[in-house]
Predict the structure.
Amino acid sequence: MPDELPDLRAMTLADAEAFAVACGWQRFRGEQVWRWVHDKGARDFDEMTNIAPAMRAEWATRVRIGGLTIAEVQTSRDGTQKLRLVTHDGQSIESVLIPDGDKLTQCISSQVGCAVDCQFCATAKLGLVRNLTPGEIVDQVYLARRLVPDRRITNLVYMGMGEPLHNYDALVTSLRILCDDKGAKLSARRITVSTSGLVPKLERLGNEDVRPNLAVSLNAPNDAIRDAIMPINRKWNIGKLMAALRAYPLEQRRRITFEYVLLAGVNDGLDHAAQLAQLLRGIKCKVNIIPWNPHPESPFERPSPEAIEAFQSETKRLGLPTYLRTPRGDDIDAACGQLANRAQGGGAIVPLRVKKRGPAELPPPPNVD
Ligand code: SAH
Ligand code: SF4
């Protein structure tokens, strides 16, 4: 299968229709093959049984159906499943399925690794290897659907490996594909994009035609702490971030989610809780408190249960809606911030660029736009 052919899985419906027209065919031919891939989950032209074999063969000379392969599925004692998926060029990414009563949430990756370098995050240790294509982003959903055919994936979160807004065009294309009611038929209201806070891209996202929910990894109540644990803050500090979020065009009855990874002795004091409540005053939001999930080579510690409880109580007392995220799949390194391609039985798939650095020694500002 020649790699240089355009990838049908990375096309929106409009792209596929335009492609058919450019081939000299009727527009509906584009919709026909596109629906097979994005609605019915076909992985090969041979599955497209209502298309004449000669036409299928014709398509196969002009486009490919790119995708991922499942290399490994690990199941946690709490039912969480972590999928290790491999791209056509041998890169490994991870996607996690989290059952919660009637809900089944899938956490998907947007990049191989990540360039943002948050000090507490395992994915940061990989550095950025490459962006995922829109086809590789949506195929995580299609493969998971095949893996659990008897269950519906109800919610989707872009909270796996990578910074989605650093792969902006692929993010938006993947959202258009997944939310198309002729394709995967997901509702944007049940999709959340999580970002470390790339201000110019946030401004763009607010004006797109597909409008997912927004989650922002805040993780600190002031610039001094955020500078130390999230170097991106030195480019877009809390003031700039909050200004962009206050201007963000939220749809009715929606609110911004702030993620706050709780790190013992760093950002978990009652004074930090008070600063956080003050900072978020007047913003339609909720806060997800995520006690830090451990991973090797990290200088941080998870606060004690008492400290976590005290922090949450204080934020609630001050009027901030806060929710405590209990770690899911932590026994298989599938919890937030633990995704770093450690295969079961050891061995990193992508070479780990392990950095031994404490939060006090600050890395150079990242080269991000
Ligand atoms: N890059 C995006 C999305 C992926 S990270 C972002 O940063 O928003 C998803 C979430 O996991 C972020 O809120 C991040 O703050 C959190 N996280 C990262 N490492 C963590 C860890 N070790 N323990 C708990 N949460 C972590
Ligand atoms: Fe990247 Fe998000 Fe991890 Fe920061 S927390 S390094 S932005 S994946």
